[in-house]
Amino acid sequence: MGSSTVLEEKPMKTAPILFEYRPLKARVGAWATAAVLFLTFGGLSFTFGATTAGGGAVTTADHLGMWGLGAVAAFVVLIFTRPRVRVTDRGIEVRNLGSPTFLPWEVVEGLSFPKGVPWATLELADDDEISLMAVQTTDKARALEATKRLRTLLEEHKQR
């Protein structure tokens, strides 16, 4: 992001939320994938024989290790449930996969949803952009309604 954009790294704590949006299909898909990974790794632990090919013993720790690997894989996939957009009178909070970023209304110029791009983009005052991973094309009508609502709120705050 450009150095002239003023961003706050702390999420909005006190301002009332005017609008909040999270993707639906991506969250459902991530939870389903996480469950399959966890259960697959756990299930694979039952396929271990009593000994390894080299003659070593397969222990309870080996079985638990497989369940642990499944838990780690599931956790990594669940990171994709994080994207969110939250709007208040102060501005827009964007949380993609990492920590939230607050953008005051003064730095937000517009919202675009270019063809072929999987999610919407906020256009900032310094000709920079920030992706809105929460507003995804896979949500179709839901994402379209969220885009319209975000544009309406943006226009309302531009007129102030």
Question: How would you explain this protein's 3D organization?
Answer:
By secondary structure, the protein is of the alpha+beta class. The protein folds into 2 domains: 17-23 and 83-158, PH-domain like (Roll), CATH 2.30.29.30; 27-79, no CATH class. It has 3 helices and 7 strands; from the N terminus they run βααββββββα. The protein has helices spanning 25-45, 60-78, 141-158, and strands at residues 17-21, 84-88, 91-95, 101-104, 108-112, 119-124, 129-136. β3 and β4 (101-104) form a beta hairpin. This is PH domain-containing protein.
At a glance:
This protein is an alpha+beta fold and 160 residues long. Helices cover 36% and strands 24% of the residues. The protein folds into two domains: 17-23 and 83-158, Roll (PH-domain like); 27-79, no CATH class.
Which terms would index this structure?
3 helices; 2 domains; 36% helix; PH domain-containing protein; transmembrane helix; 7 strands; single chain; PH-domain like; alpha+beta; CFP-6_PH; 160 residues; membrane; elongated; disordered N terminus
